[in-house]
Amino acid sequence: KDCAKGPEVWCQNLRTASDCKAVKHCQQNVWNKPTVESIPCDLCKEIVRVVGKLLKSNDTMEEIDEYFKKICEFLPESDLVEQCKDIVESYLPNILDMVKSELENPEVVCGALTLCQSLQKHLAEVKLQSQLQSNKIPELDFSELASPFMANVPLLLYPQDKPKKETKGNGNLCNDCVQLMTDIQDTVRNNSTFVSSLIEHAKKECERLGPALSEVVIFT
């Protein structure tokens, strides 16, 4: 059953809250939170205040029912309008009980009728939509990306097998790189001092990368 999914399902509206026996929870923890400013929400809050006064003057239920249904018509989509009217028709006694107990917080009643939208939920949806539209790529930790490459430095300096020389072609950057590494490996084998100076030079260059990345590179 959807009720097992928790408050996100319970507090969609008064019907779902009633079905999941969570009306009090939604009143006290969800519908009373800040709401998005909108015409349906602002009108609804005014109507709740008016209805609160009408209840004291014994106005008919039919009149109050019509007040709320009129506000439902301000919702932007026809299916939301019908849903709102259906909730009013089915749960009017419950709505009036809420009006009596929430005169100081009319947004609670309006949230139950879906006429007021949670500000927190709205901002989360706007943020998600913005990310989708900009096709934003999440930031990556560069030190994590560099770590596996730096872990192979020992193999680069002390290879198990000498790479085969390939015919050097004009403008072939790959072949130039292979030749360079071959020359470095030959020098490493024949000159131990070169190794020390190369490592010291590499450390100095790493320190210029900043503390987070330089430590990963130097100690990997």
From TrEMBL:
Residues 37-120 form the Saposin B-type domain. This is Prosaposin. PANTHER family: PROSAPOSIN, SAPOSIN-RELATED. Gene3D superfamilies: Saposin-like. One of its GO terms (cellular component) is membrane. Its main location: other. The keyword Repeat applies. It is found in: Lysosome; Secreted. Residues 1-36 form the Saposin A-type domain. SMART domains: SAPA, SapB. InterPro entries: SAP_A (IPR003119), SapB_1 (IPR007856), SapB_2 (IPR008138), Saposin (IPR008373), Saposin-like (IPR011001), SaposinB_dom (IPR008139), Sphingo_Act-Surfact_Prot (IPR051428). One of its GO terms (biological process) is adenylate cyclase-inhibiting G protein-coupled receptor signaling pathway. It comes from the Eukaryota. Keywords: Disulfide bond, Glycoprotein, Lysosome, Repeat, Secreted, Signal. Saposin-D is a specific sphingomyelin phosphodiesterase activator (EC 3.1.4.12). Saposin-A and saposin-C stimulate the hydrolysis of glucosylceramide by beta-glucosylceramidase (EC 3.2.1.45) and galactosylceramide by beta-galactosylceramidase (EC 3.2.1.46). Saposin-C apparently acts by combining with the enzyme and acidic lipid to form an activated complex, rather than by solubilizing the substrate.
